[in-house]
Every structure is written in C-alpha cells, then in structure tokens.
Amino acid sequence: MSTPILEVRDLHVGYGKVEALHGASLTVAPGQIVTVIGPNGAGKSTMLNAIAGALPAAGAARGQVMLNGSDLTGVAIESRVARGMCLVPEKRELFATMTVEDNLQLGSYRRYKAGERNYGDQLDEVYRLFPRLKERRKQDAGTLSGGERQMLAVGRALMAKPRLLMLDEPSLGLAPLIVKEIFHIIVSLKETGVAILLVEQNARAALQVADYAYVLETGDIALEGPAEQLANDPKVIDTYLGLT
Ligand code: ATP
C-alpha cells in the first residue's frame, strides 16, 4: 500500500481539564475522500483543528499526526500548510471588505513568499472549478451568498495547492440545492487528485461522496468502514440517516 497522505494515531485533545477527544486514529489514502460524521459536540471540529495545528489557546493535543509519512509533532500551522495540508474552518473566515479575487490571492500568499510567482495557473484552476467565483471576482466577499462564501473559502484553500484538504461542515447553514452543488464540487475536487478529509453533520450526503467513513461519538471513534458499508449499517441508518 502507498504511504497514506494523513495518518492520525491515538489523538487526544483536552480543553483545560476536560478531554474532548479520547484517542482517535484515522487514515486518509492518496486521492480518497474520507468523512467523519457524528452529532453536535462529538469532537469533530476539535479533531480537525488539532490535525491542522489550529487549536484555540485552551486546547492541548497529544498523539501522532503524520502527513505523507512525516511526523508533524511540534510543527506550526504555517509549516503544515507549506507541507500540503489546508483546513477550511467552519466559520469560513473570509475578508469581507476585500474582493473575491483578493481573498483568493491571499490563499497563495505562502507560495508567493516562497518565491513562486505563477499563481495565475492556480487561479485559473479555481475559476474553472467555481465559475461563479469568476463571475463575481470584483465583488466584496462580504456581499456573497452563503453558498458563494463557502465556494470562496474552498477556493482560497486550493490556492495553496494542498495535497490534503480538510473541510469542516461545508454544508452548514446552506439551502438544500446549494448543499447539493457543494457536494458535487467536492467530488470534482477529488478528481483533481487532492485527498479530502470531510467533517459533516449531513451524514447522508457525506456518505454518498466518501470512500471511507468514521463515526465520532463523544470523543471516540465508534464505528468505521467503507462509506457504502456504513450507509447500509442499521445503527448508522437508525441514528444518522433516519428512515429512508
Ligand atoms: P459541532 O458539530 O456542533 O460543531 P463538533 O463535533 O465539531 O460539534 P467540537 O466543536 O469539536 O464538536 O466540540 C467537542 C467538545 O469540546 C464539546 O463538548 C465542546 O463544548 C468542547 N469545546 C470545543 N471548543 C472548546 C474550547 N475552545 N474550550 C472548551 N471546550 C471546547
């Protein structure tokens, strides 16, 4: 088997004295979409933030995170991005008074600092994936619709040319038609070769696009398996998919 893009072993995260993640392990192979589903408060965002090196000040993590075979213990968030991982956080964190295109260009800032000047190719690629962003490239990010904002957040992350893209609830707060569009885009992203770790409460949609899935419940991985298998698991159907 080829080296996994991401390998997380026995990851614990605590906020002060309270442990929110009790030793989670997961693997993302090259080119895969892996999803983590689970209810509110299960620890999904905590896990992504710890992997990205972006925990809030109150949080502390222990365990091992390996990106493409190299250990990230003690590696700062910027260096994790430089090594190829990028997180699109739940809050999207765009610069509201800057244009769509300026927000996108900020996504390639680290590559620019490293001396790369040809980010135009990547901008073209982002506009190919998101024609709507191209149409609105001169518009301020703060005036975009919810779905367009999510597209911009993903597009900005892609400007860093990640090998692993981590998405925290990309469908949160979006209307059903837009959710469908966002998941369609996630599948096209996979086709470009980037591996994706997708955290979602929308278990049905996530299991439809993913290759492999984990169920996180109160800080523990309760179940894992090929996404199709989990989508047919009676417990998952009962708890997360409702009647079909
Ligand atoms: P949701 O789907 O609602 O976003 P989640 O699965 O992403 O939930 P987390 O946000 O990771 O869950 O939260 C896991 C647990 O950690 C919760 O009990 C939450 O209250 C706690 N927690 C999260 N962030 C902090 C923080 N900064 N300080 C203290 N506790 C926190």
UniProtKB/TrEMBL annotation:
Residues of the signal peptide: none
SUPFAM superfamilies for the chain: P-loop containing nucleoside triphosphate hydrolases (SSF52540)
Molecular-function GO terms, alphabetical: ATP binding
ABC transporter domain span: 6-243
Transmembrane in keyword set: no
Keywords from the named record: Amino-acid transport, ATP-binding, Cell membrane, Membrane, Nucleotide-binding, Transport
Keyword Membrane carried by entry: yes
Pfam family, one: ABC_tran
Protein's recorded name: Amino acid/amide ABC transporter ATP-binding protein 2, HAAT family
